[in-house]
Design brief:
Strand order of the largest sheet: 4-5-9-3-10
Shape: extended
Helix content: 55-70%
CATH architecture of the largest domain: Up-down Bundle
Number of domains: 9
Number of helices: 49
Oligomer: single chain
Distance between the termini: 92 Å
Radius of gyration: 51 Å
Amino acid sequence: MICSSASAILQCLSQHCVQTSSASGRVLRPKDRAQLILYLKSLNLPAPDKITASMAPSTTHSSIPPRLVSQMRMLAIGYPSEQNLNAIYCAYLMPILEPPLGSSTRVEAMASAMVRLYEEIRSNFRPADRGHYIFTPRDLTKWTLGIMRHELSDDQRYPMLLVLMCVNAIPIGYDFIRRAPSKTARTINLLQVIQSAISNSEHVVLLIEDYEILRSSFLEAINCLISSGEVPGLLAPQGAEDQKTSMEKLRTATEEENAKIAEKKKKIDEQLKDVEPLLKEARSAVGSIKSESLSEIRSLRAPPEAIRDILQAVLLFMGILDTSWEAMRKFLSKSSVKDEIINFDAHRITRDVHKKVSALVKSKEASFDPKNAKRASVAAAPLAAWVTANLQYSEILEKISPLEQEKNELVSNLSKAEKQIQKLSKGLLTVDEKVAALKEKFEMLMKEATQIKIDLEKEQDTIKVAGTLIDRLGGEFTRWQAQMESLSKEMDNVERCALVTATFVTYLGGCSEHTRTEVLKSFRQNYNLQDFSPVTFCATETEQLNWKNHGLPADSLSIENTVIMLNSTQTPMVIDPTGRVAAFLHSFHPKAELLRATQNDLFTQIEFGIRFGKTIIVDDVTEVDAVLVPIFRKELSSQGPRQVISFADKQIDFHPDFKLFLCTKNQHIVIPSSIRNVLSEVNFTTTRSGLTSQLLGLAIQIEKPELEERSSALARDAEGKKMELEKLEQLLLQQLASSEENLLGNTVLLDSLNKSKQNAETISRGIEESEKLRKELNDVKRIPKPNTGTYRCFQDNTSSRIDTQMRSLQLAVFYYISRALFKVDRLMFALSFVHGTLPKMFLPKEWELFTGFILDEQQVSPVAIPWVDESRYSAVAKLQAHLPTLYNNLQFSDQGTWNEFSRAVDCENTIPSAIETKITPFQKVLLIQAVRPDRLYAAMQNFVLKTLSLPSINPPPFDLADILAESSNQEPILLILAGGADPSQELEELAAKTIGYHNYVSISMGQGQEQATIDGIRKATKEGQWICLYNVHLMLSIIPTIQKELAAATPHERFRLWMTTEEESKFPAMMLQRSLKVTFEPPPGIRNNLLRTYSQIDDARRSVLTTQATFVLAWLHALLQERRTFIPQMFHFTKIKFSSRHGNLEARFQVQKVHACLSLISKSIRGTVTPDKSTLEVIKSLQLHQVGLRNRLTLF
């Protein structure tokens, strides 16, 4: 039995043992024997005890727990040596081969030969070469046992044949033919051999002697038997006639036997018709006996005589000779006693039993009287009636026994006759089929004879066609010969190519493009594989085009990853931040099921996929569950013809077509090393070259979509023509190979060859033209490198248009990223942006020196410069050591040139003109860094602004409405707040204007808000609401749950998820990648603050006084926010915690409106001003109690 747990072993022990008590406690003892041996094979395969054992993650087997080992006697048995094997198998073969061989020396020689062959096989075929090369002494034992299947005679002529045949257990049937005295006898014996092989479905060896080959008739019969499987004339026609006659006689005899059987059966039924009702009635009465009545009889110590006599007769019928009261009680205690009595067959009553029961009934007639029996016990009366009925039935059976014997003999003869009739019918049917086949063959031969005659007449025409055919096939021969040479070269390299491709697929899935390029380059050099690519080795251009049509990005990294993903034997773990690969797999596999890792029924769906061979794609994986490890490792086990796998504590059938793909958007997903080893990691993270290729594809689709369509059409056309040419070549070869008649005379074939030749030439020209056009299109699509000095995408674009597009793209990218950064980080980003997009602005070593990554290997003694501070001598020395040209151009020794520069506050703007013309803009920054680091910030800012032609490094003022227009329902909006910033009121106003305040939900994150947050998100996604989660940084643990909810939901069009957070280094990266990020802080500078305030004020017409008051409030708000940057220096009252937020500004505007309205009311009362209708409506709608002055500043 197969078991892998302790419970299975205990169950096995409970089946063969009983539990008894002893002095040492309860023990298990064998049931039917003194000792029981429990053999545990492969003890290291089951899982160890979870309490005391451990398992290394790098191995697939389990370690044996020491507790188990300590309770056993250990014995290590290795393979016997060659000398021991000789002794063992010599002892095995001695009783088998010594009598026929007549010598123990020969037996020893044979055993030695077998052992030598076994050892030679083991040494030449090792498990290290192939996993299934495992040979054990068990193979020698099987060989020895195979010899025992045959009876070996003293005939020394065929010993080797007998030894060889015993391996396959093939009977040898040559005796019949060798001893046949005449041709007729040989034919009969040959027929017997064939019938034996067919009827017994076994292999037969036909051994032919040399002298028998000399007989031409016998040799002809053997040739026919080998070629067609039959011997003509073996079954003569008269044999068929005899079979027909025999079959008719058998049918007549069968009809007579049926009539006799019916007659005998009728007589038997007449004899039994009176007794059978009595017997059925008695059986029914026995069946109605209640168990209580039997228990009552069994409980009697001294039963009445009537009960004893009745039970004695019953026991005698049942074959129980012990008629004591204990035997009767034991018989009645059986649970199936009534069933045994009811189902009792009267044919079991022997003559002796019948005499004993008959004598008992006659001598104890009163006991079997129904009344007396019923008076003794309710159960005794039915038993007495049953005894009487069976006694009568047995008497009649004894009388009719001769009739039954005759009936049985007739039935047996009838069965034999029917079988013989069936056998003869099959034989006649076979004869008829052979006759029909011979007729068809005769007709075919006649047609062939006629055709030969016609072919002779066409022979001259065929000779003329031969010359033309040779000329036309000459070109095909040359082309096929070139293909053969090319294929032979490929065959020479196929093993190395397969090795490199397997290495590429197995080990390079998670590596970067640079690593892959370097590894493949080394492989090509080491294995002499020039221009080899694993992608083209695994996938044709048609397949790659098909991948692109199903949504795969067109860059080379995506195509390489797809080759790895589709050819790996391990489960792919796809890292794809964009989420496009899961959609591609779902489109590429039409019957695949796309599941979310957050689904509640995920494991159920995977189980169905395993059972029915589905392709399962699991998207948004955040962690790999250990339940899936058996699937990754393919830990299959066999249960009969089925393969099963352990999954989720269940054994389920494993379908070979099952595939599993895991997809995650998290680039930093943490997978345990024991699980990572059995996964094939495929990293689709966008690289620089991949992004370049994807952007190029998008640009071509926008600017010139017909170019991409034409390129795809040409690729499809070229591949289609190649396939068509290959089909034509295959068709041509098949026609040549399958031509049964003379090739030169087959006009249809010749016409087909001519047509194929013409089509092949046309297709070859088309392929050459397609390849040429496709190369030209690829040259048009290729972007020159930046070092060419021009930026262009298409050949017909002007440089000015490209410069404009580059400028727009730079600004869009710069402002998009700057919007997500705090103002303190924007300058650092701007410098990195310039370095990445405009590398020509930096000469070698300049950026490294500026950032401090350059090693100070050259020790240069500082030179004293009078106008430079002494603390900056070391920085100037570094400049001199690493950038000597720049140092010479600066001319630090000329103090007169640098006099004004050294005294200026804004020295970055007063660089001497003679020096400024010799240095680049970034070298000015290096100059300021070396001699005036106090002005480095301003210098860097000037450099960035001039290089990028920007008015400011800060993005243009924006409001939340702009962010809303840019967002989507699939993208959360993350507002990263600076200290004191609060967008809640602006967000509420925007929600009220856009979707209504009733569709806006806000939740302040904190302890106990988990369920409210999840419920709010679910409701908002369904009903199209806005939900804002404030202070998410306080509950970072809920973010993975939010991601799962968003991934599982299908959000409404109007749904938006707003989140606010302060700066937090532990914020999950996946949510940051998915979100639209915007920093929310006071705009840098009073001007930007004023512009932002103006953008939030409506455009209604105001009086001069109101406009002036608005400006004063906006200016004061900007001034206070700007001074907050320099707390506590800019506020003397440090105890006042001022936070000038948007709500404070709104409160001041409300106060301003109140004062304006009160002034208007007072003027109206005095009669100075007469209010119009609109003014009165404003006064009526004004609710003074809603104006909340929540400003904590006491300056007013």
